[in-house]
Amino acid sequence: MPARSPRSSTPARSSTPARRRPARPATVNHHGIHLLRSGTAVRGLVESAGLGPDSLVLDLGAGPGTLTAPLARTGARVLAVERDPEFLARLERRFGAHPKVRVVAGDLVTVPLPRRPFQVVASIPYDLSTRLLRRLLPDATGGASGLAAADLVVEWGFAQRVCRAVPRDLEAARWGATYELRVVRRVRAAAFTPAPAVDSAHLRIRSRPGLAGRRVRRVLYAMLAEAFRRPDQPARTAVAEVAVRSVARRVLGDAGLDRGVRAGAVPVDRWADLARSVIDLSRRR
Ligand SMILES: C[S@@+](CC[C@H](N)C(=O)[O-])C[C@H]1O[C@@H](n2cnc3c(N)ncnc32)[C@H](O)[C@@H]1O
């Protein structure tokens, strides 16, 4: 008989004793879904979020409640969203009577998001990462959800892509210029049961200050669009799309950028500085 899969609640029998005990008892997982088992990774996510009794936090893809429980212990109001019937039943059993946890049966890609500002702390399915960020982060017209902050477990390669100082695609550049996206730590495959084929990352997302307004977002996204359309042009040409020449010169200097710098070489945080300065200077003129 083949050894039982590590997905099973009963660990496979082994001739060598396990070197380390799992961070918590293994949970029933018939689906091959990668559940977090590392206390370090779970604590890191929850502590990074800095939640308190006034916070509202979404655990998207809550599974058996690996994150839901420590999130609830912070005193925050928790919405645990899950679509799998077995996990939902388990969540209901664990948190059905909890005054601050609501178990929501739904798809994390379509479930209505709260109107009031909220945070997300979640270990999300790898294949939904892009769709989820599209929901949570602003769109091209400057619209955005009420996302205040997010601490997510995503595939390592995905995190690397969206955290590049100079992203390769316009969508990641818009995200990176509007939000600070940072890898807090590598989450090794062994931190999950069953272990996935690749490592993951704790991806921390925070708003960059001064970029909440529609006007500043329009300026920012117009410059980025131009920079991506013609990356070899000087950055000042992209800035000149949204500001008169003298302002363009000034803001580039203020952002510490060389006059001749290529648009395609400007890091996302510099585009954020440029947008804020353009708005600031145009207000003063
Ligand atoms: C990587 S597991 C994380 C589970 C748990 N949060 C943990 O960290 O151990 C992802 C979870 O998302 C759920 N899921 C997958 N697709 C979903 C969807 N479209 N909407 C809601 N939940 C989904 C799966 O059932 C699974 O429980």
Automatic annotation (TrEMBL):
Species classification: Bacteria, Bacillati, Actinomycetota, Actinomycetes, Propionibacteriales
Residue intervals of the Ribosomal RNA adenine methylase transferase N-terminal domain: 41-209
Family: Belongs to the class I-like SAM-binding methyltransferase superfamily. rRNA adenine N(6)-methyltransferase family.
GO molecular function, a single term: rRNA (adenine-N6,N6-)-dimethyltransferase activity
Keywords on record: Methyltransferase, RNA-binding, S-adenosyl-L-methionine, Transferase
Keyword Transferase: yes
Binding site for S-adenosyl-L-methionine: 34, 36, 61, 82, 107, 123
Stretch list, region Disordered: 1-29
GO cellular component term, pick one: cytosol
Entry-linked Pfam families: RrnaAD
Cross-referenced PROSITE patterns: RRNA_A_DIMETH, SAM_RNA_A_N6_MT
UniProt cross-references to InterPro entries, sorted A to Z: KsgA/Erm, rRNA_Ade_Mease_Trfase_CS, rRNA_Ade_methylase_Trfase_N, SAM-dependent_MTases_sf
Low complexity composition-biased segments: 1-17
Protein name: 23S rRNA (Adenine-N6)-dimethyltransferase
Gene3D superfamilies per the UniProt record, alphabetical: Vaccinia Virus protein VP39
